[in-house]
Amino acid sequence: MPHANLMKITLNLARTKQFPEGSIRHGYDFILPLGDDGKIDAAAWQAHRNACVVHRFRADEPIRRGQIVRRPGGSAGATWGFDYDVSTHADDEAGFRFGDHLFRPGEYVSIRDPDGELETFRIVDVRPA
Fold this sequence. Notes:
5% of the residues lie in helices and 48% in strands. It is mainly β.
């Protein structure tokens, strides 16, 4: 059965000191359910969370694959993130206020890496998964 609100979202690294023009070789592809307002639909994620996967790509690293997770805590009562190894949280990455963001092309989101560094990414594509 198709899930009309499951969307494939592509992020590319925004401008940084190292990449003044940003980088299409650093980013993420992931699948999340979005509501009509462009925000994450938490109830749909709960119902279809096995389909909510992430692929992290970096020019100089192999692609990492994982699951989209939602954990208690954060300003809205829950934090969204990427879990690449279910046996540990040491490699997890957290979306900064993902629950508040509009996932539409041209918008920006930030992701905190396991070392605590925050990187900003531009949403370049949102399409049905």
